[in-house]
Amino acid sequence: MRAKKSSDLISASGLLKLMTHAMMGAALGLVFSLALILCNPAVAGLLNHGGSQAATVFALTLVTTFAIGATLTGVVFILVEDKQS
Prior knowledge:
By secondary structure, this protein is mostly helical. It has one domain.
């Protein structure tokens, strides 16, 4: 019977992988929010009438959402990788 090994998610390399996924998601969310602001005049108009913090809140909301999604996807990828090896 094989001994159970600890998950790669708990190690330092696993946390580094998760942090990398989160940073990639944040960068993707920032690019998406800026592209949406620049390409869609309706969004730009709403943000112009929304006050001084509207664009910041809009961008940070998308950045946070994408970062959380990429981190959760990274958890799944690490666990599947760990199961295959």
